[in-house]
Specification:
The complex is a heterotrimer of chains A (88), B (256) and C (200). In chain A, the strands form two sheets. Chain A has a five-stranded antiparallel beta sheet, with no helix packed on it. A three-stranded antiparallel beta sheet of chain A has the order 3-2-8, with no helix packed on it. Chain A contains one helix and eight strands. Chain A has 88 residues and is mainly β. In chain B, α5 links the parallel β10 and β11. Chain C has 200 residues and is mainly beta. Chain C has a single domain, classed as Sulfite Oxidase, Chain A, domain 2 (Alpha-Beta Complex). In chain C, β4 and β5 form a beta hairpin. The chains are: A mainly beta (88), B alpha/beta (256), C mainly beta (200). At the A-B interface, β1 and α1 of A face β3, β6 and β11 of B.
Chain lengths: 88, 256, 200
């Protein structure tokens, strides 16, 4: 059986693409409005890409597809992402 | 033109095996030397990438078992019978060999070693690995944060870090371990074989600041089904969801 | 992108076969890939629907679908994640049978599944004995993890086109990209041409 994991499992894949740790970002589900943390969302990795879903409503929050030389990230299910940056 | 600091994402680095240590029949700790390792926090993991001579490549995630400090990093890997990567890491990889590794990864499931808050750790199987890193970090930095580890394991032979955890709880009263054996228990354990349930949680969190009113930081790690079950138990016991951090691993892709 | 070789690491068994498209390796088990929870589909309310570009609809409930003539086919499966499984046995209804008598000028199909998954392909790829709506696998009912009660089976394209838990097909004059085709995967997905990712 294919069992979902959580956002911790894709922190490496996200860390390759972003300079900040996206797994600790807060987000709001664009479907139901639930707020949470990327590390705690439901993540399916046994698929052609990564699919992250809301723990409350199953809405697709974001998807990530990785080709050898390119990556696609679709965030359309997320109302907002709040990232922590280093202060300037 | 001003030169801005260039922020960079994670990239692969070469890790050299400098030691191996069998923990159980199926579990082995591998010590890697990683020149330039930026350091990690207890609870973080790494991605490991293996490449075969014909170019076939695959990767997995493994939790770091060692406390932060230095440029040695220890992974404790449990061999899965039908696994693709874990049999290699636990049976083939030897001192002097090199693999690719990237990390440290994940800033959410980490223990802040400056926090005095009580900590309740709940492990299922090899989910104990990142929690053991937190325990080791606590003793390494001399923290006096009260810690309690609830550890669900198949049988005594599968227990990881048993002697070390026992040593810690004998030397420090603010650290304690409660074991739940799910298949076979040692003869001297009065509790019957069984999973972590509400009664176990109540018993194991008694006698310390680990109940809901004490608002301990809760970390639960294990297979997905285990984590869902214990997270529900902890919430049902009155703990606030925002105090509970979870990490799930599965049979493929990201086993720990 | 290939990194240093790990001495003694060979990984999953990878047999060569003239029936393997480029970049694929053979598996003997049947990996389960999923992008979401497995839908619980009730056969009492199950319905399969074909809708044409003019809005005409044809539907079958489960008993009516079972009453349609079925084929037993043995085909090779090729997943874009690089595993292939040879000689798999299926029972299902040819999409030709489902389309028989439907008036359409559509050139494209958008396939819908329970749980919200979609995938697109040219309608011609669903015709001519190349595609089925399958409900039997290896002599038994198709299990939910493999797409039961019924999934699309289009074995000449990468397996993401063979939508699990299929519930209907829209026939369209214009192409609309499906769940993975929207996000980097190739719009057509021919395994023999190794059409894994879109050209940008």
């Amino acid at each position: 059986m294919s069992v979902p994991l959580d956002g911790n499992a894709i922190a490496g894949a996200l860390g390759e693409l972003f300079a900040v740790d996206v797994s600790v970002a807060r987000l709001e589900c664009g479907g139901c409005g639930m707020e949470g943390v990327v590390a705690e969302v439901v993540v399916y990795i046994d698929a052609p890409g990564v699919v992250a879903r809301c723990r409350a409503c199953d809405n697709v929050l974001f998807r990530l597809v990785r080709a050898p030389d390119r990556a696609w990230l679709d965030l359309r299910g997320v109302a907002y992402l709040r990232l922590r940056t280093t202060s300037t | 033109m001003a030169r801005a600091a260039v922020l960079r994402g994670l990239s692969w680095r070469v890790a050299t095996v400098v030691g191996v240590r069998d923990e159980t029949a199926a579990g082995r700790t591998i010590v890697f030397e990683l020149p330039g390792w930026p350091g990690h926090a207890a609870g973080q993991h790494v991605d490991v990438r293996l490449t075969a001579p014909d170019g076939y490549s695959t990767q997995r995630s493994y939790s770091i078992a060692s406390a932060p400090g230095g440029d040695l990093v220890e992974l404790t890997v449990e061999r899965l019978p039908d696994g693709e990567v874990s049999p290699y890491l636990t049976q083939v990889l030897s001192v002097g060999d090199q693999i690719e590794l990237r990390g440290p990864i994940g800033g959410w499931f980490v223990w802040d070693d400056a926090s005095p808050d009580p900590v309740l750790l709940i492990a299922g199987g090899s989910g104990v690995v990142p929690l053991a890193a937190m325990v080791r970090a606590r003793f390494a930095v001399g923290s006096s944060a009260p810690f309690r580890l609830l550890y669900s394991v198949r049988d005594p032979a599968s227990l990881l870090f048993g002697a070390e955890l026992d040593h810690y709880q004998r030397t420090d009263l603010s650290f304690g371990v409660h074991l739940a054996f799910t298949r076979t228990a040692p003869a001297d354990v009065p509790r019957p074989v069984g999973r972590i349930d509400a009664a176990f949680l109540t018993d194991a969190t008694a006698g310390g600041p680990f109940s809901a009113p004490d608002a301990p930081a809760v970390f639960a790690c294990g297979p997905t089904g285990f984590v869902e079950a214990v997270a529900n138990l902890v919430v049902a016991a009155g703990h606030e969801a925002r105090r509970i951090k979870t990490e799930r691993f599965g049979p493929s892709g990201s086993q720990r | 992108m290939a990194g240093i070789v790990s001495p003694g690491f060979f990984g999953r068994r990878r047999d060569a076969s003239p029936r393997l498209p480029p970049g694929q390796y053979l598996v003997r088990d049947f990996p389960v890939l999923s992008a979401g929870p497995t839908p619980r589909v009730n056969l009492d309310t199950w319905e399969f629907r074909i809708a044409t570009e003019t809005g005409e609809k044809r539907t079958w409930d489960w008993p009516a679908f079972q009453a349609l003539p079925a084929d037993d086919v043995t085909v090779d499966l090729h997943c874009v994640t690089k595993w292939s499984k040879l000689a798999t046995s299926w029972r299902g209804v040819s999409v030709d049978t489902l389309l028989d008598g439907i008036e359409t000028d559509a050139e494209y199909a958008l396939v819908h599944a329970f749980g919200g998954y979609t995938t697109n392909l040219p309608l011609a790829d669903l015709r001519g004995g190349k595609a089925w709506v399958a409900y039997g696998y290896d002599g038994a009912d198709l299990t939910p993890e493999h797409g039961g009660p019924a999934r699309l089976l289009v074995p000449h394209l990468y397996l993401w086109k063979s939508a699990k838990w299929v519930r209907g097909i829209d026939l369209r004059r214009t192409d609309e990209r499906g769940f993975w085709e929207q996000l980097g995967y190739h719009n057509y997905g021919d395994p023999w041409l190794e059409q894994r990712y879109s050209a940008d």
